[in-house]
Write a structure and sequence with these properties.
The complex is a heterodimer. Chain A is mainly alpha-helical. Helices cover 76% and strands 0% of the residues of chain A. Chain A has two domains: 165 residues, no CATH class; 48 residues. Chain A starts with a helix and ends with a helix. The mean pLDDT of chain A is 90. Classes of the chains: A mainly alpha, B mainly alpha.
Chain lengths: 230, 106
């Protein structure tokens, strides 16, 4: 195996816990989409060409509720704004990657791949074969997301209330496993606490804009605490 | 507007915020202060998602142990803190959640 193949496999392997944790989400999306009246081809189409995790089932819910289509597009945009922060965070590594690779890498950017890659970069800032590692993580996530969507499309017809099983718990415990080891000093702790408190104060803002606002406030608090001499 | 156009629109508004910073990487230099702020992105965004999914249930904040997501998340956090093991944190969190649902109902 060449070393870039090895990095690709390593990226896929490191993402596995998060892929397992995200699996119920793909299934719930498939089930919700069918419940909302989409055809199986349309439901799978959304997973194939939009590929946006939580935004997908917010969209499915809104389609089911008969929302105005431009409003659905605006909601998806706001829910996905966090990717702007992820992509900006990765700019120092991406600047060494050829432009033609940046298109698929951007298309495949998800919470799961970002969490895995940034977790790796924390331990290994000069990660060799960054592109291969990233693509391994992303391709594994993408392929399994399609499989899970198909399972959900099938299950949605069999088990109509699968969306209410609390399957989202898998994703949160996985994110907890990533974030907790990152809390190493006062600044990182202050950032996390601010994100949590701000989220509780803004959760009822429309279109999930509270999530994006909370993240920005938490980042600012992290910077302020870090720069203040203790 | 047809479903196909809707899906295309969703693709565009999802792709653009993902791609824009990647396209600009190497062409613009971020100020040092912005770079240090970006270090906090994973903690800030992932924590906000964790808190929202865990505590906001059915449209309101449920800060009690009868919200089974909360004990699951707390036990996963304890495992992650003491062992730094991702699979362990997920496994224990899921087991706590499953046990509560099976034995405490809900």
């Amino acid at each position: 195996m060449t070393s870039s193949t090895k990095a690709f496999a390593q990226g896929a392997w490191d993402t596995l816990p998060l892929i397992v944790a995200a699996a119920p989400f793909g299934m719930v999306f498939g089930a919700l989409a069918i419940g909302a009246g989409l055809t199986p081809a349309q439901a799978l189409g959304i997973s194939l060409i939009v590929f946006a995790g939580s935004a997908q089932f917010i969209a499915a819910t809104l389609i089911g509720a008969g929302a105005w289509f431009p409003a659905i597009i605006a909601t998806v945009f706001v829910v996905n704004l966090r990717h702007l922060l992820y992509a900006t965070n990765l700019m120092p590594q991406v600047q060494h990657v050829a432009q033609r690779w940046r298109v698929p890498m951007a298309f495949w950017l998800t919470d799961e791949t970002f969490a895995t890659v940034s977790n790796r970069l924390k331990r290994d800032p000069d990660l060799p074969h960054f592109r291969s590692y990233y693509l391994g993580s992303a391709v594994a996530m993408y392929l399994l997301w399609q499989v899970n969507t198909l399972v959900g499309i099938w299950a949605g017809a069999q088990i109509p209330d699968i969306a209410n099983w609390g399957l989202d718990v898998a994703m949160v415990v996985a994110f907890v496993g990533i974030v907790v080891p990152m809390l190493v000093d006062r600044a990182t702790l202050a950032c996390a606490m601010t994100a949590g408190i701000a989220m509780l104060l803004t959760y009822d803002w429309p279109n999930q804009i509270g999530l994006f606002a909370s993240a920005l406030i938490a980042i600012a608090v992290g910077v302020i605490v870090r720069e203040r001499p203790s | 507007m047809s479903i196909e156009l809707l899906i295309l629109g969703m693709m565009l508004v999802t792709f653009i915020p993902r791609y824009l910073p990647f396209a600009l990487a190497g062409r613009i230099q971020l100020p040092a202060r912005v770079k240090s702020a970006l270090d906090f992105v994973p903690i800030a965004v992932l924590t906000a998602i964790i808190v929202q999914v865990t505590l906001v249930r059915n449209g309101s904040v449920e800060l009690s142990l009868s919200n089974f997501h909360l004990p699951a998340v707390l036990s996963a956090a304890a495992v992650a803190h003491f062992t730094r093991h991702l699979f362990g944190a997920i496994g224990v969190g899921l087991m706590v959640y499953a046990a509560l649902r099976i034995f405490m109902g809900g």
